[in-house]
Design brief:
Elements lengths: L14 H9 L45 H15 L7 H22 L3 H21 L10 H21 L7 H11 L4 H11 L7 H12 L2 H8 L4 H7 L3 H15 L7 E2 H7 L10 H7 L3 E4 L13 E4 L18 H10 L2 H7 L4
Antiparallel strand pairs: 1-3, 2-3
């Protein structure tokens, strides 16, 4: 029978690790004292246990090296209320620090085999943080942010949360929020759709819009799916919008078959509408079409040549569409950006959810 350790450490970082990292000069910027008058002065009260990989030859940690469930939750709150809004460093550096420390938190949850009631309050804010960061950093270069690693950890956390809810006897206030985030992150996934339908059916009011959107994806009606996802709550819409480049690629490929003609063309202005290009993103549509080797031609119906997308049309030909081209990198969506801005306090949103 396995025996699990129960942590007794009531600090964000065990004393032994604090002493070691100060001695070895391994203190992170966010663990230094901003009021010390000199750069790089360690602040023991700001130090947070860092993630270390498990290894077969490593000794089993002692109880005083593992944080209590209460301290794990307190550390999540500290990271999201103190470090996340700290403007002294760009967001990708804040993300990197918080991601590592949250990974250590998740590791200690497993080591202690915490109960469902202890896991959910810790894991739910981590899920929201990863959703928000995946969107916030979607335009960042790979040197600053690796979307695949973030997506892998977000998927693991979402599935763990869903399993925890299945073990609960009663309903949890955040259950449907997490289910919606799971469907939003996995928009278009048959596995996610089947999983939600098996648990709740197709008529659950809290999930109806998201299930409908999933079914539209399976029918290939990505235009309806895009319209629907823009009606999600801000965080759900943000994480779902990461799939917009895939949807648009599939739609352009469909149009290359449906609207194939050597004579007729399709106005770029119409594509702008059905593909969901808004605000500053409209200026990217022509280049996005060229990315897939689609031919743009100037309209000859008297439209002003300097009138943006209105002056251009696309000539679709099945043979010309470059199916070998990968989908473009996601971009921030103006409507979602505005909705997130209206949230004002992002830390509060990530800790308590947002329903709007």
């Amino acid at each position: 029978m396995n025996e699990f350790i129960r942590g007794t450490c009531d600090e964000m970082c065990p004393k032994a690790e604090i002493d070691l990292r100060i001695r070895e000069r391994m203190v992170h910027f966010f663990e230094t004292d901003p009021d010390a008058g000199a750069a790089g002065v360690p602040d023991r009260s700001r130090m947070v246990k860092e993630f270390t990989r498990s290894a077969a030859d490593r000794r089993q940690p002692k109880p005083w090296e593992i944080r209590t469930p209460r301290m794990l939750l307190g550390t999540v709150h500290y990271l999201l209320t103190i470090v996340l809004p700290d403007p002294r460093r760009p967001f990708h550096q804040r993300y990197e620090f918080i991601f590592d420390r949250m990974r250590a938190i998740r590791q200690e949850m497993v080591i202690q085999n915490l109960s469902v009631g202890e896991v959910l309050p810790i894991l739910e804010p981590i899920v929201r943080f990863l959703c928000y960061s995946a969107y916030r950093l979607c335009e960042a270069p790979i040197a600053e942010f690796d979307p695949k690693i973030c997506a892998q950890h977000l998927q693991e956390c979402l599935k763990k949360v869903i399993r925890c809810y299945e073990e609960l006897d009663g309903d949890d206030l955040n259950r449907f929020e997490m289910e919606r985030l799971y469907l939003s992150f996995n928009i278009g996934s048959p596995e996610a759709t089947q999983s939600a339908l098996a648990r709740y059916g197709a008529s659950e009011p809290e999930l109806r819009l998201h299930v409908t959107t999933q079914l539209e994806c399976h029918r290939g009606n990505y235009c309806a799916a895009i319209r629907n996802l823009l009606r999600f709550s801000p965080l759900e819409a943000a994480v779902a919008s990461l799939q917009l480049p895939q949807f648009r690629r599939r739609m352009l490929q469909q149009f290359s078959i449906a609207y194939q003609s050597r004579v007729q063309t399709v106005p770029l202005e119409w594509l702008e509408s059905v593909l969901g290009y808004e605000g500053r993103e409209r200026t990217c549509l022509a280049d996005d079409c060229r990315h897939y080797n689609l031919q743009l031609v100037a309209r000859t119906d008297g439209t002003d040549a300097g009138d943006g997308n209105r002056s251009w049309a696309v000539k679709f030909e099945k043979a010309q569409f470059d199916g070998q081209r990968c989908a473009l990198q996601p971009r921030k969506v103006p409507r979602i950006e505005d909705a997130l801005d209206r949230c004002r306090n992002i830390s509060r949103m990530l800790l308590g959810g947002f329903y709007g």
